[in-house]
Amino acid sequence: MTRGNIPSIFSYPRAAMRTRVCITIDTEFSIGGAFADATRRPVAEPMVYCNVNERSEGLGFMLDTFRTHDVQATFFVETLQRKYFSHDPMRAIAHQIRDSGHETELHLHPCWRLFEHADWKERVRTTRRPDDFFGRPLADSITLLQEGIDTFAQWGLPRPKAFRSGNLQHDANLYKALAAVGIPYSSNVGAAIFDSGDPDYQLYSGHHERHGVIECPVLSFSDWSFGSKRHMKSLTIAGTSFGEIRTLLERARAASIATVVILTHPFEYVLAHDATFSRTRKQHVTQQRLRRLCEYLQQNDDAFEACGLVHALDTDATASARNDLLEVSLSQSLPRMAEQVIYDNYSRWALKRDAANAT
Hints:
Structural class: alpha/beta
CATH superfamily: Glycoside hydrolase/deacetylase
Oligomer: single chain
Shape: globular
């Protein structure tokens, strides 16, 4: 089957259940290096809008791309940054996302709680792993989640039904906490990003019930192997070529994987000179990948449904013991690796040149 200019390697009857593809965006502000250097300050809106020549090449680019290709996405919106940003800039961002037809769900980075304390600069030096959910006491995780739920209510947003933890940190206590506060869905696992060491959470794909919560992990896959050694990646726009993404979607469909979760962030669509995001350039590679993915999903809408995660799981949250690990070939991975190296080197040179020209 061929749709538009993009060939598909499988052919599917229209009557077959479509594979749901969920582009999920962690929407967050940045500590901006303040924990390492107290003279620095956290960064709010520039981390999300990512303006280049007065045009938003982060959130604005994403919303435009999704609108053009009729894609619904899920934005996991971080709320604990209110501990520092008292003027609450994320409220307007969340409403802009919601008003554009996308899902707004809950995302938390516990490290922002340090700003509750006047002596946060001293606490940073003595607090061990302040951003972790892994190893966090159950009661504390419940408190953090409830605070996030309360923030959504204060912002006038629907109660979140899905959660993603900062840095994809997770353990059994987090799922118990999600069940306790009544959040039924999560996407906390990216096997190539964070390994809890618990085999019960070595999840690569599919739907899995953990302590009453349906976990839909970021798809993880193998991009090369040598003997018994297998290299793992999680499916992100920044780290996966469009060719690899297309192959994974086709193979997920062939394997009857109901839902594929893809991870990205607004700031991945620009290049920044420093942590302040005050001087930026478009990231042409990631922008092209997102455009091509959305175009592909639109042109193959008989096989794939581009939708939010909550919509997908409200449609079918059936848990399964299946945990397929998909693969792509080294012939696809090597060009992506070369492209990343070449473009990264060029980008560093271009940003230095821009900075020199601005002085």
